[in-house]
Write a structure and sequence with these properties.
Elements (H helix, E strand, L loop, with lengths): L2 H17 L5 H14 L4 H14 L6 H13 L3 H9 L4 H4 L7 H11 L4 H9 L11 H16 L4 E2 H22 L8 E3 L1 H4 L4 E2 L2 E6 L2 H12 L4 E7 L3 E6 L4 E7 L4 H9 L2 H13 L2 E4 L2 E4 L5 E3 L3 H7 L15 H6 L14 E2 L13 H10 L4 E4 L14 H17 L3 E9 L10 H4 L4 E5 L8 H12 L6 E2 L17 H10 L3 E5 L9 H8 L4 E5 L11 H10 L13 H4 L4 H4 L1
Parallel strand pairs: 4-7, 11-12, 12-13, 13-14, 14-15, 15-16, 16-17
Antiparallel strand pairs: 1-3, 2-4, 5-6, 6-7, 8-9, 9-10
Helix pairs in contact: 1-2, 3-4, 8-9, 10-12, 13-15, 20-21, 22-23
The chain binds one DNA strand through helix 2, helix 4, helix 7, helix 9 and strand 6.
DNA sequence: GCCGTTTTCGGCCCGACTGTTTTCAGTCG
């Protein structure tokens, strides 16, 4: 999949155009880049199949950008972009990442101080050359110095698994502080928004929204910026403040009055693309939509704003869950009352992937069972690693048999159904890591690839398809093998994998580990089209991991999954119908 | 450069905050 790579190229080009004060084109390029990034299919494949015509079908991609993409795919570069790059300082795109530096200021820095890279900029700051420049001052120089520091510390995105608990922590700390300072104000409407509320796999900044009457807003802001977690206050106003917490992440707080709370929640939740589309609908219907509310164009009167529900309703749309707001067709579906009824946390009845001390888990079988039972699960599968996974203390057959015995004993003591299982290595040739007579004794077989990633797409596809054709395999674990921020998915033809899985009635895992989230939202969306079923599994290595269910659930919802699509929402009596060995 | 129930040209989201300047430009989301 080269979509991200091509999107990057377009973003970079947009930055350079911006620097050269070219109007509107940067916006067009960024829009195209964003759509390519979110495009479900590999656009290289689209180009191979349908040529340039296929590329222009992508929203935001017209004749010209399609030409550039084609050139890039054919030759590995774009002549025009190279030319453009040659005219801009070498570090332009990097410098544009410095908070507070936009195209105009950068141009000035390049023209008057010959600043071309971040290290040039650092130099200019330390020798105080910046503050003497017209339009700059002492304050800007200090801010830029700090911005460079922040850029160097962490300019990468925060994984959902880190951002979500962090946001909850900050909100809870803020509430505690406010209860002490101003005990009589309503604290029920403080919520995280942005890509975090949409449960995207990684988050840039954490955005928090709070409702408060005007007279209470100041006090709330003061409480926020003086939280002990705050490392640096970037800006502070009556309605918006921006801080960087000690861990290095940016957090924004916005405060709005009650009559605008719903509109602000809608607006700040995004996505940007979803909102632009929504605004267009508002305009067509004779309204104007902003973060303050929905207003009648003629009278200027507010017609909605207290709640999101009210806004969607007035626009003739069903309420759209945050996870769907990516402008991937949800608005059209909402207009036709054809939105999916998304799978919910309460629907989940079990967890089909977890480890114990038998392989690389940290806890005993009993500890895992106790915790799962406390979570009111109806069933779990114990999936310790198979024998060839030496590094993860994979189980020899004898060890596994001992585990079966313990499972049997536990089954007498606990109400919950405990399934015999294993995360079985899919070997290089696509065969499974235990002989058939062992596999058939397992209730569920979870197959996974853990090694030998660096093979051709054909080879990896063949390996996985062979495994999917094995009658003993039930679930394909973390199907893409990616590790967020560390390792790309291995080269594999997902079309063929999904086809084989569908033909053989196999279940696709949505792995909840924050570093995996695999399948991701786009692949889930694609896989659903093949009629596949999924399981949302934590791949727990300790009891604390059992709660990471919500991260995978978020991806499932982002992939438009309904309860029926997810087999671990089924009661055990129905689950038995899904897996062959349980059925027989 | 893209796009179209305001359609093949002329728009393209828009409001808050900061710093520098003294009424506003630049940046951000």
């Amino acid at each position: 999949m080269r979509n991200r790579e091509i999107a990057e190229l377009l973003y970079e080009t947009a930055d350079i155009m911006e620097f050269q004060q070219i109007e509107w084109k940067p916006r067009a390029y960024r829009r195209a880049a964003q759509n390519i990034e979110n495009f479900g299919e590999d656009i290289e494949k689209v180009y191979e199949r349908e040529g340039k015509k296929g590329l222009t079908e992508i929203p935001g991609v017209g004749e010209s950008i399609a030409d550039h993409i084609a050139e890039y795919l054919e030759t590995g570069k774009v002549e025009k972009f190279e030319e453009l790059k040659g005219k801009a300082p070498s570090g332009t795109t990097e410098l544009m990442e410095i908070r507070g530096l936009g195209a105009k200021k950068m141009k000035k820095l390049a023209d008057e101080l010959e600043i071309k890279t971040i290290s040039d900029l650092k130099d200019a700051v330390s020798t105080h050359r910046l503050r003497r420049l017209e339009g700059f001052g002492e304050k800007s120089e200090e801010n830029i110095a700090r911005a460079i520091e922040n850029y160097e510390k962490s300019h990468s995105r925060i994984p959902l698994g880190k951002a979500l608990p962090l946001a909850e922590e900050i909100i809870s700390a803020l509430k505690t502080e406010l209860r002490i300072r101003t005990p009589d104000i309503d604290l029920s409407k403080i919520i995280y928004t942005g890509s975090l509320r949409r449960l995207k796999e990684t988050i840039g900044d954490i955005d928090i929204l709070a409702e408060a009457k005007e007279r209470d807003a100041g006090g709330m802001m003061n409480a926020f910026v003086s939280l002990p977690e705050v490392g640096q206050v970037v800006s502070k106003g009556k309605t918006r403040s921006s801080v960087i917490i000690k861990e290095g992440f940016g957090i924004d707080l916005r405060i709005v009055p009650p009559e605008s709370y719903g509109a602000a929640l809608q607006y700040f939740t995004g996505s940007k693309e979803h909102n632009i589309e929504l605004r267009n609908i508002a305009l067509r219907e004779g309204y104007k939509l902003s973060e303050y509310g929905l207003y009648s164009k003629d009278s200027g009167q507010q017609v909605a704003g207290r709640s999101e529900e009210e806004i969607y309703r007035k626009l003739g749309l069903k309420y759209i869950a945050p996870e769907l707001r990516e402008n991937r067709g949800e608005i059209k579906a909402a207009a036709k009352n054809a939105l999916p009824e998304l799978v919910d946390a309460e629907d989940l009845r079990g967890d089909l992937h977890m480890h114990t001390k038998y392989s690389e888990g940290a806890e005993s079988l009993e500890t895992m069972i106790k915790k799962a039972e406390a979570m009111e699960y109806e069933y779990i599968a114990i999936t310790d690693h198979s024998r060839s996974q030496k590094i993860a203390n994979g189980m020899e057959i004898e060890t596994m048999k001992a585990q079966w015995k313990e499972i049997e004993e536990m089954s007498k003591r606990f109400r919950m159904k405990i399934l015999r299982s294993s995360e079985v290595e899919i070997l290089k040739d696509g065969s499974l890591d235990y002989p058939d007579e062992i596999l058939k004794e397992l209730d569920v077989v979870v197959g996974a690839v853990h090694s030998g990633f660096a093979v051709s797409e054909r080879e990896m596809t063949g390996r996985i398809v062979t495994a999917l054709e094995n009658r003993h395999l039930d679930i394909l674990a973390h199907p893409s093998g990616r590790l967020l921020g560390k390792r790309e998915a291995y080269a594999v033809n997902f079309g063929k994998v999904f086809e084989a899985a569908a033909a053989n009635g196999k279940v696709m895992e949505i792995n909840c580990q924050p570093s995996r989230l695999d399948l991701n939202d786009e692949l889930i969306f694609r896989a659903k089209d093949y009629g596949l079923k999924f399981c949302i599994s934590t791949d727990s290595h300790a009891v604390s991991d059992l709660t990471s269910m919500r991260y995978g659930l978020g991806q499932a919802r982002r992939g438009w999954l309904e309860k029926e699509d997810v087999v671990n929402t089924y009661p055990y009596s129905k689950l038995k119908g899904v897996f062959k060995k349980l059925r027989d």
